[in-house]
Amino acid sequence: MIKNLSLLLLIFTVVLLGTACKRTDISFGNQFIDNGYTQIIKVDTFTADIATVYIDSFISSAKGFGTVGSYKDPYFGKITSESYCEVAPPAYSDIYLNTTYDSISLILKLDHSFYGDTTKPITINVHQLAQSIVGTDATTSNIYNLDSFQVMPTALGSKTFTISPNRMDTLAIKLDDSLGQRLLRKLQNKLDQDITNNTNFVQYFKGLRISASSGGCVYNFKDSVTMRLYYTKHDLFTTSQQTDFSLYNKPHQFNHISYDRTGTSLQNLTATNREINASLTGNMAFSQPISGCMTKISFNAVKNIFKLPNYVKLMQAKLIVRPMKNSYSAGMYPLPPQLRLSTTNQFDLLGSDLTAVINGSAQVQYGNLYVDYLYGTNTTYTYDLTSYLKAFISSTAVNERDGLLLAPPSPAYETNFNRIVLGNKLNINGNIELQIFYAAVQ
Predict the structure, then answer these.
(1) How many CB atoms are closer than 10 A to CB 313?
(2) Residue 131 sits in which domain range?
(3) pLDDT for 1
(4) Do the beta carbons of residue 332 and residue 117 sit within 8 Å?
(5) DSSP string of 207-262, one letter each residue
(6) Region 260-273: what's the mean pLDDT?
(7) CB-side exposure of 72: number of CA atoms within 13 Å?
(8) Which of 81-90, 298-307, 323-332 has the highest mean pLDDT?
(9) Residue 401: pLDDT band by 50, 70, 90 thresholds?
(10) Which of 66, 151, 345, 430 could bridge 423 with an S-S bond, Cβ 3.0-4.6 Å?
């Protein structure tokens, strides 16, 4: 009886040892644990390194809107926007005979979007261009956010507003009477070559620059800029009339964006110093493409994943992006509603956007923003990095400066002032976190 019992114990021990060395396949999310010998372990100690990179320029023409104003951002410096456009005359008609001039105004239609402090008055100035608007290069008509054109020294008109963008639809700025009188005389003369067609007129009147000399906010308006001429018609009855010089050649309508980062953590970010690690900018990184900067995220530490205890396989990777506490607000400094992650290399150029399988198809990830306006500590963008990091750790051709760029999708990339401030692992007010789940066999 004792011999039989010893034999049974020997057989059980051999089976047990054989089972303990077996590596099982695990479907994460619906996994099974093989008698406690295979485990899913969560690790959040791998650092995601962050930096701010410089953006040269982007196409600003034909975006369908104008933007004007300026504001001072505690993190990004003073940001200023002005809009350029051309206008075309109404078709010639003899209706301008027997007329006298009344006034001329520039009409802007607000699109109700803005960024900054709307309680501060803004002075909007209108200048006539002294230089024709032309494309930046010979092969295209594209115009970029850093481009600008010369203007006449004296403004055609200026007006100070306190704008309530959610309640106001239209801004009207009275222009110089001498301009209106000249234009009416041309309309009255059917032989005037400057007004017979749009091409001739743009040579005569090269366009407008709309800018601001004070204020704490930038306002967007529709690309329906109108220079409206008011006159009186003397006929059987005397009547007040108006005619419009409307926006012409939309590819030549563009916004010039400038910024002054003096005194901020970003003041050393320039065309010659194109990437600054967060450790050199107060343990922060910044993203606002319209003012020339984006956040870059690198994962070089993840290459050490094979050193994890009993590591077998990466099961899931999640990136949690937490905006820095008190760096944003619902009013003045709202966060971008969507942020994509795009691959990049040592040249910091945008590559392909990261996707995730949603409802059976690969879709671009935009972060699923959750805003904690009450405490500010739980505001997050979240991304699935599983596929990206699997390819990253298995590649032998990865450059240490490869990574991901955090930026809004187009067209918000070129048109939106929403921005985000992030912290690295040393920033207690909001840091970026990489969570990794891996399979381990004991």
Answers:
(1) 15
(2) 65-259
(3) 45
(4) yes
(5) -EEEEEEE-SEEEEEES--EEEEEEEEESSSEEEEEEEEEEE-GGG-EEEEEEE-T
(6) 95
(7) 7
(8) 81-90
(9) confident
(10) 430
Gap between the Cα atoms of 163 and 219, Å rounded = 9
Per-residue three-class SS string for 172-211: EEECCHHHHHHHHHHHHCCCCHHHCCHHHHHHHCCCEEEE
- Note the pLDDT of residue 37: 63
* φ, ψ (nearest 5 deg) of residue 183: -65, -40
Residues 278 and 315 reside in one and the same domain: yes
- The single-letter DSSP state of residue 288 is B
**What share of the chain in percent tops pLDDT 70?**
91
Q: Average model confidence (pLDDT) for the chain?
A: 89
Indicate the helix (H) or strand (E) that contains 170.
Answer: strand 170-174
Q: CB burial class (10 A; 0-12, 13-18, 19+) of residue 153?
A: exposed
Q: What is the rounded distance in angstroms from the CA atom of residue 42 to the CA atom of residue 34? A: 18
Distance of alpha carbon 263 from alpha carbon 280, whole angstroms? 14
Do residue 240 and residue 276 come from a single domain?
no
Which residue blocks in 319-424 are alpha helix, DSSP H? 386-394, 412-415
Let me know if 394 is exposed, middle or buried by CB neighbors in 10 A (0-12, 13-18, 19+): exposed
84 three-state secondary structure: strand
Predicted pLDDT at 47: 87
pLDDT tens digits for range 174-218: 999 999 999 999 999 989 999 989 999 999 999 999 999 988 999
Contact (Cβ atoms closer than 8 angstroms) between residue 219 and residue 92: no
* Residue 99 CA: distances (Å) to CA of 41, 239, 278: 84, 10, 66
Same domain, residue pair 138 and 193: yes
Beta bridge partners of 321: 381
Domain count, the chain: 2
Average pLDDT of the segment spanning 263-267: 96
Pair (429, 300) in one structural domain: yes
Please state the φ and ψ torsions of residue 175, each to the nearest 5 degrees: -105, 170
